[in-house]
């Protein structure tokens, strides 16, 4: 049997998708990944076959830098970073206006390339990133049965009266202006309609007999897989989802890093705080500096992944801290008592699997809904990254480091449910209901 995984050329997308593929590999089955060149090394590390597929203009091998992107994409990335410094509404507005070029890039040509790859690989089963819209156009128009994976918060698939790009929930720390929210929703509705017209135009070229979509953002595969814990998702919203399976998490195995292993085993028994804003938002060195200042006032060990930020921007740091551009997140979370994060879904699901509470500083997209869910569950505290000062950050860290009683018990129960490779096994089981790709 052959599994084909279709992924954008972004490490944050490929890591969980490739981790799902390990459930097939352990059964001795063939796994082929279609992705771009920037993530070729990740495919090789997993031991999978690879075919080249470029689903968009940009790429991210692990830490994204604007200067490494092609012309046009570099300015778009700088524009996004600038928007995050203004505030949440400006950021969401910027993302909405860029949506078509981000998510439906060169759709007909990409779709035909995907169809060529399917014909070449002859997969029995196909998994595709839910946000790889051009790839899903290819599969739908060719009648290839497949599973699509929502790698972010489940609100990446709108249900009910939700509109893609407009957060369905906000943490209490955020109080956006009501008029700005009305304008943002209207913009997201217009973008939805324009995006759907582009989807339908491409679909018509690929399959003139296919029925048009009413909202392309709500289109799904034959099976919907959600890389998110069901325990953090409301029963009311779950009832509105199409046929689906909650995977919980897809936590990758990491190669041993001798420097990190030695630091973790140094005998320092103080609580460990892990700080990372992921591959994109590590550019916000100003926020990382405030987090560092807050943690300097606590009796803790600290490991910081600074990404694209120069560590010198964080001010004077204790010699005992572990500060690097990149850290093996899964490994460090396995020893942490607290993590400070932007609220990306990989960070959330990996922290929940490790049973680590989160101080969340969300900047964009589905990070707000994910942060609100953590707040509601008692597993996290959310603050506005643009306004929270060192004192507020320090107090939130102290509160979460003292997590105990019933919330701590529920967090540990969730960790147990997500551990042991549960996500890949759930994906494997769910795909057995999907007939062979045609």
From TrEMBL:
Keyword DNA repair: no
PANTHER family per the UniProt record, alphabetical: STEROL 3-BETA-GLUCOSYLTRANSFERASE, STEROL 3-BETA-GLUCOSYLTRANSFERASE UGT80A2
Protein's name according to its UniProt entry: Glycosyltransferase
The species this protein was found in: Cryobacterium arcticum
Gene Ontology biological process terms in this record: antibiotic biosynthetic process
Entries under CDD domains matching the protein: GT1_Gtf-like
GO molecular function: UDP-glycosyltransferase activity
Keyword Glycosyltransferase: yes
Record-linked InterPro entries: Glycosyltransferase_28, UDP_glucos_trans, UDP_glycos_trans_CS
Keywords noted in UniProt: Glycosyltransferase, Transferase
Gene3D superfamilies cross-referenced by the UniProt entry: Glycogen Phosphorylase B
Highest taxon above the source species: Bacteria
Family: Belongs to the UDP-glycosyltransferase family.
PROSITE patterns: UDPGT (PS00375)
């Amino acid at each position: 049997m052959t599994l084909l995984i279709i992924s954008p050329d972004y490490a944050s997308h490929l890591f969980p998708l490739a981790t799902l593929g390990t459930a097939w590999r352990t059964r001795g089955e063939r796994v082929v990944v279609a992705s771009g060149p920037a993530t070729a090394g990740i495919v090789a590390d997993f031991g999978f076959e690879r075919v080249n597929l470029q689903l968009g203009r940009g790429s991210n091998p692990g830490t994204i830098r604007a200067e490494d992107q092609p012309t046009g994409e570099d300015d778009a990335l700088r524009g996004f970073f600038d928007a995050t410094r203004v505030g949440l509404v400006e950021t969401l507005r910027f993302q909405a206006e860029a949506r078509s070029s981000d998510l439906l890039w060169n759709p007909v040509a990409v779709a035909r390339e995907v169809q060529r790859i399917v014909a070449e690989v002859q997969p029995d089963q196909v998994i595709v990133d839910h946000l790889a819209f051009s790839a899903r156009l290819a599969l739908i128009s060719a009648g290839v049965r497949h599973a699509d994976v929502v790698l972010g918060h489940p609100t990446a698939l709108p249900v009910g009266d939700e509109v893609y790009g407009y957060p369905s929930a906000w943490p209490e720390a955020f109080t956006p202006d009501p008029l700005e929210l009305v304008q943002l929703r209207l913009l997201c509705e217009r973008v939805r309609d324009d995006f759907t017209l582009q989807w339908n135009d491409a679909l018509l070229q690929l399959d003139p007999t296919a029925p048009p979509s009413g909202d392309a953002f709500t289109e799904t595969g034959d099976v919907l897989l959600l890389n998110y814990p069901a325990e953090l998702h409301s029963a009311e919203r779950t009832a509105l989802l199409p046929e689906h399976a909650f995977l919980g998490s897809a936590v990758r195995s990491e190669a041993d890093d001798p420097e990190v292993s030695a630091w973790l085993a140094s005998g320092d028994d103080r609580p460990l705080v892990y700080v990372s804003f992921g591959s994109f938002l590590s550019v916000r060195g100003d926020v990382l500096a405030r987090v560092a200042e807050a943690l300097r006032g606590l009796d803790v060990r600290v490991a910081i992944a600074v990404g694209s930020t120069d560590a010198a921007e964080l001010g004077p740091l204790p010699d005992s801290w572990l500060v690097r551009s990149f850290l093996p997140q899964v490994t460090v979370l396995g020893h942490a008592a607290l993590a400070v994060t932007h609220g990306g879904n990989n960070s959330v699901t990996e922290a929940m699997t490790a049973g680590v509470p989160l101080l969340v500083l969300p900047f964009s997209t589905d990070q707000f809904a994910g942060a609100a869910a953590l707040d509601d569950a008692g597993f996290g505290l959310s603050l506005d990254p643009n306004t929270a000062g060192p004192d507020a950050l320090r107090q939130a860290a102290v509160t979460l480091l003292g997590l105990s009683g019933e919330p701590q018990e529920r967090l540990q129960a969730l960790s147990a449910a997500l551990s042991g490779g549960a996500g890949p096994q759930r994906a494997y089981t769910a795909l057995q209901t999907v007939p062979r790709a045609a």
